[in-house]
């Protein structure tokens, strides 16, 4: 497809202090074997894009390790493929970017030298399955300057401050854009995904340089809603916004409902790709008792697991019970331990006989490499 | 000229029909028969090669190669996509004169002398693609060098009652082989050939050429080439392998090797000696509220709502409510519908088993293993 993908790994990481303390938002593990970036990358690849980049900010080691050459997403290409842009330490444009426009300014050469006609901008904290071809068709049909993707959903006063809301007229054109408001009720909630003509994006960047604009949401979307043709494309499939530890937990637990699971992983847009790890299939012991759980490969389950998400390479020992929990890669649980409403980060070890309790609206988080 | 030289080239025999596996190999070659929840049999030899730092592998194909060809592809899953060497699929091809199918294991290598010569190797390692084991071939090659051998054959100790299924070797105290009999009715020892040979390439080439001119030869390593070399006084040594090794040439042995993954003293898939495979892009498997899974292996993308015991469940398998699977191997993308009971069976890929059915006879009754061929639809009418 004639479009360039630009993925932002960390545009909004202020709310994910636990999960993103040592990794970029894009590299947060989700759904048993994925990282958040997989959903955006897979959407782009499934829509036929073959050139894209990821703009990172800080702590991007695990993201770079995960993406590698891009071959797991079919992106190890002579033409196109994937590039990761870490920040520069010296020279013009050194240091961390201060907003989406500032970030784009730093990769202006990459954008200008690309031959694609359209550009798709996307963050990694939203999970959805979309065919960008439909968005681009809509964008062309509306002769829009910018097309924003949104879904109709309820927000509350706590999470609305992490969202961009679009108010539209009947033809789909935005007439008001609320950036991080305090509000509640049903709204057109942006998926932080925008389509533009590449030429138009370049013009926006030049304009931003001239006026020292840094922030795309305030300085372009909200400020220019009446002068630019900003159209809104409605999406109504699986949607999750990972904007806090609680939303991470709630959205993970929702995957245990089969309809949700199928709408994310078996959508008609295509498979979700991720880095292959070559772990063997999961082994269940004689005393294993597992109900309503999503279990990745390479695990050894000898205890009880209920209502939980178990990532690759997790061990649950004999007589141990894990309920309502998320156990990330290589978590090891000894014998006779009890866990309820716990999120363990990668490589955590819970020794024999430990009892750990969180609560469903306040899951307890255990840092990676912890030894309890 | 750019040097393509390799110390050792691997030739992997993957062209056999595997007729004793019945319907499991009616459409696919034996090395591509699925195994262990997410693998195909050939993964074990290919992974052993890579883990032994052998990066030049010729895969000799002939019988039903399509699935095998696309499975191997460019060899990337086994890290065998290399600038120099890597994986090469070698089917029989037309020549100026004398174009023919591979008529035996030795003939298959003979017809690919040019491929081997391209890499100008000191040694050639001959493997077959139908065994389940983890083995460091580099140790065997070192042994071969230490002994100054012309050929080294890997052997494993087998129970005496099974010995007549194998090539049986007798060697002296130094390990030098003094006698070799292919499938003897009265075996003289329990040292069975694993069908793994290291040859000095110059020697092997010489004997392949001699053997090719012999019209009475069946062009087989075990039956012809090894006895010929032995009778000519070449130095053939046996290399003892200790570890798990299973020939999965029959339905019973294939079932048993799958079950060995479940038992403590059996075969362990995890560990540092990674077995690589071409990956199905599937989410984690889902175990439902009504499910019970015990002593089993379950792969990605499966959905288990019923009961699974002592079984191997491949990726994408669906086991619906109140279905019971026992002592069985359920291959990829099989659907087992409600209230159906599967006992002591191997169900091949893409089968659909309807509701309220009984497949197979419980293992306790000592009946044969039931095999349901690929893409079968069994429905309760």
Helix content of chain B: 10-25%
| CA(first)-CA(last) distance of chain A | 50 Å
- List the strand order in the largest sheet of chain A: 5-4-1-6-11-8-12
* Approximate shape of chain A: globular
> Rough shape of chain B?
globular
Task: Indicate the multimeric state.
Answer: heterodimer
Biggest sheet of chain B: strands, sense, closure?
A: 9 strands, mixed
Total E-strand runs of chain A? 28
> Which two chains touch over the largest interface?
A-B, 40 and 38 residues
Uncertain regions of chain B: pLDDT < 50 for 5+ in a row?
none
Task: Write the topology of this structure.
The complex is a heterodimer of chains A (372) and B (381).
Chain A: E1 3-8, E2 29-30, E3 34-35, H1 36-46, E4 51-55, H2 61-67, E5 81-85, H3 100-106, H4 108-113, E6 118-123, E7 126-128, H5 132-141, E8 146-155, E9 164-168, E10 174-179, E11 185-197, H6 198-211, H7 216-222, E12 230-234, E13 239-241, H8 245-254, H9 258-265, E14 282-284, E15 289-291, E16 293-295, E17 300-301, E18 304-306, E19 309-310, E20 315-316, E21 321-323, E22 326-327, E23 332-333, E24 338-340, E25 342-344, E26 349-350, E27 355-357, E28 364-366
Parallel strand pairs in A: 1-4, 1-6, 4-5, 8-12, 14-17, 15-18, 16-19, 17-20, 18-21, 19-22, 20-23, 21-24, 22-25, 23-26, 24-27, 25-28
Antiparallel strand pairs in A: 2-3, 6-11, 7-13, 8-11, 9-10
Chain B: E1 8-13, E2 34-35, E3 39-40, H1 42-51, E4 56-60, H2 66-72, E5 86-90, H3 105-110, H4 113-118, E6 123-128, E7 131-133, H5 137-147, E8 151-157, E9 167-171, E10 177-182, E11 191-200, H6 201-213, H7 221-231, E12 236-240, E13 245-247, H8 251-260, E14 285-287, E15 292-294, E16 296-298, E17 303-304, E18 307-309, E19 312-313, E20 318-319, E21 324-326, E22 329-330, E23 335-336, E24 341-343, E25 345-347, E26 352-353, E27 358-359, E28 370-372, E29 377-378
Parallel strand pairs in B: 1-4, 1-6, 4-5, 8-12, 14-17, 15-18, 16-19, 17-20, 18-21, 19-22, 20-23, 21-24, 22-25, 23-26, 24-27, 25-28, 26-29
Antiparallel strand pairs in B: 2-3, 6-11, 7-13, 8-11, 9-10, 9-11
């Amino acid at each position: 497809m004639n479009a360039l993908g630009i993925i932002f790994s960390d545009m909004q990481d202020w709310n994910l202090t636990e999960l993103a303390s040592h990794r970029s938002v894009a590299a947060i593990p989700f759904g048993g074997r994925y990282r958040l970036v997989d959903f955006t990358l897979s959407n782009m690849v499934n829509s036929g894009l073959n050139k894209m980049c990821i703009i990172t900010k800080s702590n991007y080691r695990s993201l770079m390790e995960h993406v590698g050459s891009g071959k797991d997403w079919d992106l190890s290409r002579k033409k196109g493929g994937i590039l990761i842009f870490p920040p520069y330490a010296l020279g013009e444009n050194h240091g961390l970017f201060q907003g989406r426009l500032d970030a784009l300014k730093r990769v202006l050469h990459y954008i200008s030298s690309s031959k694609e006609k359209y550009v798709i901008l996307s963050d990694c904290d939203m999970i959805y399955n979309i065919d960008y071809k439909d968005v681009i068709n809509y964008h062309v049909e509306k002769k829009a300057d910018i097309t924003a993707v949104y879904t109709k959903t309820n927000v509350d006063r706590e999470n609305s401050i992490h969202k961009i809301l679009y108010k539209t007229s009947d033809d789909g054109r935005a007439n008001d854009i609320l950036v991080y408001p305090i509000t509640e009720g049903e709204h057109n909630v942006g998926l932080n995904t925008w389509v533009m003509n590449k030429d138009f994006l370049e013009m926006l960047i030049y304009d931003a340089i001239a006026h020292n604009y840094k922030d795309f949401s305030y300085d372009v979307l909200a400020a220019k809603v009446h002068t630019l043709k900003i159209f809104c494309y409605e999406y109504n499939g699986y949607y999750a916004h990972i904007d806090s530890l609680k939303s991470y937990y709630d959205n993970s637990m929702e995957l245990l409902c089969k309809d949700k699971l199928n709408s994310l992983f078996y959508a008609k847009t295509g498979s979700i790709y991720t880095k292959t790890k070559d772990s063997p299939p999961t082994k269940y012991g004689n005393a294993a008792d597992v109900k309503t759980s999503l279990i990745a490969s390479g695990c050894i389950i000898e205890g009880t697991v209920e209502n939980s998400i178990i990532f690759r390479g997790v061990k649950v020992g004999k007589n141990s019970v894990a309920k309502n929990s998320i156990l990330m890669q290589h978590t090891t649980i000894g014998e006779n331990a009890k866990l309820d409403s716990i999120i363990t980060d990668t490589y955590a070890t819970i020794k024999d006989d430990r009892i750990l309790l969180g609560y469903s609206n306040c899951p307890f988080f255990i840092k990676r490499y912890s030894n309890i | 000229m750019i040097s393509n030289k390799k110390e050792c080239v691997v030739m992997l025999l993957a062209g056999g029909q595997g007729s004793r596996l019945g319907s499991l190999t009616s459409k696919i070659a034996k090395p591509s028969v699925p195994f262990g929840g997410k693998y195909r049999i050939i993964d074990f030899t290919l992974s052993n090669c890579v883990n032994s730092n052998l990066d030049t592998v010729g895969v000799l194909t002939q019988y039903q190669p399509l699935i095998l060809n696309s499975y191997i592809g460019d060899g990337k899953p086994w890290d065998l996509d290399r600038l120099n060497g890597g994986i090469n699929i070698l089917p029989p091809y037309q020549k100026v004169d004398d174009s023919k199918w591979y008529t035996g294991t030795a003939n298959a290598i003979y017809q690919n002398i040019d491929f081997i010569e391209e890499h100008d190797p000191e040694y050639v390692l001959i493997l077959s693609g139908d065994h389940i084991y983890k083995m460091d071939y580099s140790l065997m090659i070192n042994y071969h060098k230490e002994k100054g051998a012309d050929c080294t054959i890997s052997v494993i100790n087998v129970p005496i009652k099974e010995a007549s299924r194998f090539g049986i070797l007798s060697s002296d105290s130094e390990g030098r082989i003094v006698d070799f009999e292919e499938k003897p009715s009265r075996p003289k020892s329990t040292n069975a050939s694993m069908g793994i040979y290291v040859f000095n390439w110059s020697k092997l080439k010489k004997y392949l050429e001699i053997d090719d001119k012999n019209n009475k030869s069946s062009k087989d390593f075990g039956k012809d080439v090894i006895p010929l070399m032995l009778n000519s006084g070449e130095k053939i040594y046996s290399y003892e392998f200790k570890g798990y090794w299973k020939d999965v040439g029959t339905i019973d042995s294939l079932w048993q090797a799958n079950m060995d993954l479940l038992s403590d003293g059996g075969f362990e898939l995890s560990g540092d000696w990674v077995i690589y495979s071409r990956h199905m892009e599937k989410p984690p498997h889902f175990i439902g509220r009504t499910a019970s899974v015990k002593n089993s292996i379950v792969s990605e993308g499966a959905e288990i709502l019923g009961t699974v015991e002592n079984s191997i469940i491949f990726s994408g398998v669906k086991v619906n409510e109140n279905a019971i699977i026992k002592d069985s191997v359920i291959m990829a993308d099989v659907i087992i519908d409600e209230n159906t009971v599967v006992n002591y069976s191997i169900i091949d890929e893409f089968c659909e088993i309807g509701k309220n059915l009984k497949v197979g006879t419980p293992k306790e009754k000592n009946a044969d293993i039931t095999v349901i061929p690929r893409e079968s639809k069994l429905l309760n009418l």
